[in-house]
Structure formats: C-alpha cells, structure tokens
C-alpha cells in the first residue's frame, strides 16, 4: 500500500482530461480528488504491479476511456494501443498483453473475453482490475450515486477462467481485485 507513495503513477493532469467528465462511464475526477484518488490510483497500481518489470512489445488498454492510464502503461510496453468499447481494431493485430482496468464489470463478459482472447498472441496475457462486490462497495457506489449495473468479482473470475489460465490473483481491503492470466489454447 505504501508503494503507491514511493513510486507514484504517471497520470495526465486533470485539466487535460476534464472534458471527458460525465461522458460515457468516465469518473475522471475520482482519480484526482481525495479520498477517491487514493483508492482509484491503487487499483491502477495493482495493474502496474502485475505487469511487472518486463517491457512487452505491444499492449492493448481495453476500455481505455480518455487514457488516464496510458502514460503509466508506456513503462511496460514499447507500443500502447487504446481501445474503447465498441471501437473496431485491426483484426490482424495481436498483442502480448491486454489490460482491463475497471472494464469487465460493465460489459458482456463472454463477448469481451472472446474478443480479448482473439486479439492476444498465443502466449498472451490478460491483466484485470475491478471493484469487488460486497456490502462495503455497494455502500460506496450508493454514496457516489452510481447507478451502473456491475458484474460481481465472482462472475468476472469465473468467465475469465473459461478463456485464460489464472496465474495471479490478489485483492485489496475487500474493495478491489486484480488478476493476470495466460491465454488458453482452446476455448
């Protein structure tokens, strides 16, 4: 938890992203305002930690939104591509890693995971971070007046396990979970 203070994330300024506030499912200000910023940034730190020190050739930020996490992801890959939900991607492209930070709780899991699976190279990896579903997070989202329907962490884990072999799984304070998985050969 203290590693967030020791090695802070590289995020763009709020001013550069403010124009995206309220469009789609973006909660841009949550990454910049206390007390939310600590929790939201820690979720991103979980992703960064799972990516490790290895520099991948190319990485896809799936559901990238306005690109809050792009600069940080550039530490982990030579090429970072962004894909917003519904956006088409060149079907010939293949990625070493696909990152899904706070995405899978909102999408059709089978469709999204099938697409992610098809976009990965044979030994490609998925890295996921999402909120957990429990009383504490339900209260949190109620206080934020968030009306979005979300998949639970158990649903996400179950569906990801169908397409990927889970290598690492971690949770933090019962608020967030993160995982990394390797593409299964046959689905």
N-to-C terminal Cα separation, in Å?
Answer: 36 Å
Radius of gyration: 16 Å
Q: What is the number of beta strands?
A: 6
Order of strands, widest sheet: 2-1-3-4-6-5
Outline type: globular
**Structural class, judged by helices and strands?**
alpha/beta
Q: What is the makeup of the main sheet?
A: 6 strands, mixed
Order of helices and strands: HHHEHEEHEHHEE
The low-confidence parts are none
What features would you describe in this structure?
With about 190 residues, the protein is α/β, with parallel strands linked by helices. It is built from seven helices and six strands. It has helices at about 5, 15, 35-50, 70-75, 110-120, 135-145, 155-165; strands spanning about 55-60, 75-85, 95-100, 120-130, 165-170, 175-185. The protein has a six-stranded mixed sheet, with helices on both faces. α5 (about 110-120) runs parallel beside α7.
Summarize the structure.
The protein has 187 residues and is an alpha/beta fold.
